[in-house]
Amino acid sequence: MQTSRRQAxxxxxxxxxxxxxxGGPEHISNTLNFTSxxxxxxxxxxxxxxxxxxxxxxALPSIAGxxxxxxxxxxxxxxxxxxxELMSHTENDAETDLAFDFREISSPENIVSPxxxxxxxxxxxxxxxxxxxxxxxxxxxxxxxxxxxxxxxADVSSIWLKSDQTRWTARAxxxxxxxxxxxxxxxxxxxxxxxxxxxGLTLSVINCAMQDWSFAVEARPFADHLFxxxxxxxxxxx
Length: 238
Description:
Blueprint: E1 11-12, E2 16-21, E3 27-34, E4 38-42, E5 52-56, E6 63-71, E7 74-79, H1 81-88, E8 111-112, E9 116-117, E10 119-120, E11 124-132, E12 138-147, E13 156-163, E14 166-170, E15 172-178, E16 181-188, H2 190-199, E17 201-207, E18 212-217, H3 219-227
Antiparallel strand pairs: 1-3, 2-3, 2-5, 3-4, 4-7, 5-6, 6-7, 8-11, 9-11, 10-18, 11-12, 12-16, 13-14, 13-17, 15-16, 17-18
């Protein structure tokens, strides 16, 4: 039996967005919920099924789709294939910075989660940090990964992040060996953090010898972290 798209798990989150309908003026609002293929937007604007909508999340590339449903609080947009492809390969622009000071991430001005144990063949822990911007909202997020063996994080060639059926490439902002441990810091954008809070996150590291190492973290720690960002515009209503 096929599963209806309406039965796809929806994650409730108030994420700040800008959007336009059929090439019209840009409006500012927030999301109601989303899945890995669609987003519901709170809006009083008149929209009809089939209307073309362009959505902007902060500084991320614009994504687009068609209105699939209209309801009293707003409307739901199913993303087109080009946008799904774009979101699946969102890559952080920052090159590896050997001078990166990971202590800045633990600044009192930022929100930092407790350490989380990951499911992996090599014991690893992770923590999430969100950097506070001048506007009082949180748009820079970091994963700090610590492994009991430095080998999995040595000579990194590429890093893949996967949540539900969506996959992204990423770059480590910083890597270093701490005695018999490895440490890496990876940046996430708003969309990726919310996806992780809805579906969990799997991270795969591939080294220059094409050997891979991966670990998985369930959704709850990411959702708890987003909850702790309230009352910023990333507050979770679930």
